[in-house]
Amino acid sequence: MTSKQTVSDAMTARVETAGMDRREFFITTAAVGGTLVMGCGWPRRGDAVGVTTPAAPWYRESTIPEINAWIVIAPDDTVTIRIGQTELGQGVWTACAMMISEELQCDWNKVRGEYASANRDAREEAPAWTLKNPAGPEPSPTDPRGGGGEGDLPATNERISWTGVYRRMTTNRSASVKGNLYFYQMAGAEARERLLLAAAERWDVPTSELTAKDSIITHATTGKTVRYGEVATRAAELEHPHPETIIIKSAHEFTLMGTERLNLDVPLKVTGEAVYAIDVKVPGTLHACAKACPVWGGDVKSYDFDAIKEMPGVHSVVQFPKPDPGLIRGRHFSGGVAVVADSWWRAKTALDALPLEWEYPPYTHLNTENMQQALVESIDEPGQLIYQQGNLEDSMAQATRVVEATYDVPYLARARMEPGNATVLVTDDRVDIWIGDQSPQETRFSASQITGIPQEQVHIHSSHLGGGYGRYGNGPQAEHAVMVAKALKGQPVKMQWTREEDWSVGTTYRAMGVARMRAGLDADGYPIAMDIRAAADQTASSPHRSLVPPGYFFPNLRVTNHFADFHVPCGTRRATGSPSNVFFVESFIEELADAAGKDSYEYRRELISRNDFLFKDDWLQALDLVAEMSEWGTPLPEGWARGIAIDDRRYDREKPDVCTIAAMVCTVSVSKAGAVRLERVDVAFDEGFGFVNPLSVKKQIEGQVAWGWNDVMHQGFTVKDGRMEQNNFHDFPVSRMSEYPREVNIRFFKTNHWLEGVGEEAMSQIPPAIANAVFRATGKRVRSLPLRKHDLSWA
Amino acid sequence: MPFPLIINGLQYVVDVEPETPLLWAIRDTLDLTGTKYGCGIGQCGACTVHVNGQAVRSCSIPVSAAAGATITTIEGLSTDGTHPVQLAWKEFDAPQCGYCQSGMIMSAVALLQRTPAPTDDEIDSGVTNACRCGAYHRVRQAIHRAAALMSTSPTGSGEENNDV
User: Fold this and answer.
1) What is the pLDDT of residues A340-382, one digit of tens each?
2) DSSP readout, B33-80?
């Protein structure tokens, strides 16, 4: 039977099912001691509604009454904290628990985490006391009312209402601390106050005579004590009469936050017990391997199920339509097919064998060369004005010398390790989804739209993620899985992409980019005119990020963004627009310093000193610190050189007083044959007025060193015939231990502002710092990434 | 087709096609999900297990080739996370997302079994697993620490616990 592509209902998948005569197969396991264990491998038609994630120690329904929606305290004092953000390795699991525990005054050694329920979030309004930052919309770090971070952060799109009980369940834009700090503190404080009320009632004393520390409440005058676990049940019954009057700590009062804490999720990650979504096995599950048209916007033309229906374990083929772009932040993906079988390997084997023809969209003529040419041409158009000061053309005409350079950067995938997957069960009135997801509220919305089942009946069972690096950037995994499961209603289905599908079809990319930089220099070699023209895909994420307002003094400046409309879905890869833009700016500054015959560090220092902006002193502090750390200016062996770069990832318009400044020096060696080695990295990193968990900050910076190295040295996706040419580790290299620098030095410096974040704020400086060092070592200025494309030999 | 496998000291029989990669027999048939699928082409090392004491990328050998062999997965390293490599990993808070870490740990254990006090260069050539989070800095420190723990431990060797 050959199926036609026509899909009448945009949300409906079609299914063809093999004969239901499969034998059950059994796995026999015999322990060495002789005990026989029988396990059933063939899925029974299971009703998995209500089952919880198997063997996931952090996920369980509590039978102990909660104090508030975030906090459950057991009689043995174990504190369970419900976390709305997703752990992708960035330490949020621990940081969120620390923000709550800071106010709860509990014993940190008794804290464990579990994921907050996105389903409950759909059914329950947020307590009023979580909706308003006590310090108002522009919180200062020393506000006596406490509060901080981003203030009252509005939802960024209409699909999420951040008025549900868990507020902001999205894990993106470096915002897990800055976006949640005050209401997590409030949650901890509200519970603490109710515990105090319960103890006060027990002893018939006023709460003002009580103190709480390390899960013990003490009555100062009598010395009586009670443990949290002894009063938690009563605290759960008591309402706080005036929660809006609770004062939370301001930043300088933190005692738990700011101390290094081992991450709560790590112990299970060294034993293999941590359950990622890909490890979930709901009883009775069938396995699906899905493949969509590799040219985005395409669909299935035909397939021949008869050719594979007799293959072992094959259950059915489900053809699914193009996901509604409205569900995936406007990005266009393709329609495709999923083969469903009794094991994933059998599903994949049958999918590989399935005769399949695609209906290609009109983009197959596109390739990296003609797309890059379109970007170059867009630069000559007026573009979108981002920033302007002074008079660019007049000052350029007065320049002693004009320097111009054009740079380009390739498409880049996040390339997370865990391939896209989700286990889904759709019944007539309920959807269950087991998934690791950076935005379960949006997935809840998607599932509801696809199935017609209200969000209140969509249950997301969250897991840790095997890497994330960018929100919805990881594509329509949930949508594919829900569409397939909807076609097999009543049957739990685990949809899992291959590595190839995950990297080359199912994801979104950091946009390809081209920038033309033009500077007019005065007689001393400093720019009096600067023209920055940055071009990228129409769907590029934050294409102006880190370009404006400038940290350097450009008295006459014009910044424009230029776009070409490509079909490649672009999205929020780690640090969004900054890695491209900081590469452009910091490479060009290096070229200007070289043209001026000045030292790279001194030249930058002078340009920052001449500028007038809020963070000028902090920028200078960062630059001076990293110069000192790296022994800037001291001799190095032949073929070695240092490169320097700085950025602060400000949002120019939304929050001009929030940033994270980081300056880096990368020391490289380049062999005469052109082999580059990153020998040492020195990082001066903005502490604001304090971190939540400095240990996680160090780990994030260490990881971003590897990311920056991969970005500048190795990685690039290229387009041919409208699709990505790379799809796995063999052609999209990820550096290994041998390439990681032997020496990484990190130092923090205090400033007086809220931080933008820490998980992507050390990304963008590494590529230009390395390229600048390679330039100093070899005399070769690479303007087109990655470096591995170029001959870097020298004599 | 039934194939006998000895994994973590237990004897199993899996009934799968002979060319099924060992990885999928371990993960899907036997539910030992600590071993991860990363690339399927023997590159990333997330699926690393020990076969007859050697670190092997289990996505790239068919189950038929592993029949009868002695296999250790991350679950067989210790019953309670106390293998010296696991202790060192926790001490340095090495994992980030952690997805690659089962394989990374199995590679490190194999390295330490053949090279009890590895140099940095020996770590570079002995542990070739990919970690997308870039946790290499702490993984390197943890391997050195594990080597020290194993040299001073009274029971010594950090031998795999196959008695689970």
Assistant:
1) 999 999 999 999 999 999 999 999 999 999 999 999 999 999 9
2) TTS--S-SSSSS-TTEEEETTEEEEGGGSBHHHHTT-EEE-GGGS-SS
> Sign of the C-alpha dihedral, residues B154, B157, B162, B164?
positive
The Cα of B8 is separated from the nearest Cα of chain A by a number of Å equal to 10
If pLDDT is split at 50, 70 and 90, which confidence band does A174 have? confident
> How many alpha carbons fall within 13 Å on the CB side of residue B158?
29
Tell me how many degrees the CA angle A373-A376-A380 measures, rounded to the nearest 5.
Answer: 135
Which of B33, B99, B138 lies at the smallest CB-CB distance from A467? B99
Rounded to 10°, the helix A694-713/A766-778 angle is: 50
Residue A99 has pLDDT above 50, yes or no: yes
**Pick from A265, A558, A229, A699: nearest CA to B99:** A265
pLDDT mean by block of 10 residues, chain B; 164 residues = 96 96 97 97 98 97 96 97 98 98 98 98 98 98 98 60 44
Which region among A141-155, A414-428, A632-646, A677-691 has the lowest average model confidence (pLDDT)? A141-155
* CA-based nearest distance B96→chain A, Å: 4
Kindly state whether B82 is in contact with chain A, defined as any CB-CB distance less than 8 angstroms. no
d(CA A531, CA A517): 6
The residue with tokens 């250790």 is: B72
DSSP-assigned beta bridge partners for residue A38: A28
Contact A706 B96 (CB under 8 A): no
* B11/A32 Cβ within 8 A: yes
> How far away is chain A from the Cα of B42, in angstroms, using its nearest Cα?
9
Handedness of CA A738, A573, A663, A610 (dihedral sign): positive
Output the 3-class SS for A34-67. CCEEEEECCCCCCCCCCCCCCCCCCCCCCCCCEE
In whole angstroms, give the CA distance from residue B101 to residue A508: 25
Tell me if A699 and B138 make a contact (CB, 8 A cut-off). yes
Q: Residue range A498-522: average pLDDT?
A: 97
- The amino acid sitting at A413 is A
> Which of A569, A567, A560, A575 is CA-nearest to residue A514?
A560
Tens of pLDDT, residues A291-331: 999 999 999 999 999 999 999 999 999 999 999 999 988 89
* CA nearest to A181, candidates A125, A114, A254, A244: A254
Q: Side chain identity at A91, as an amino acid letter?
A: G
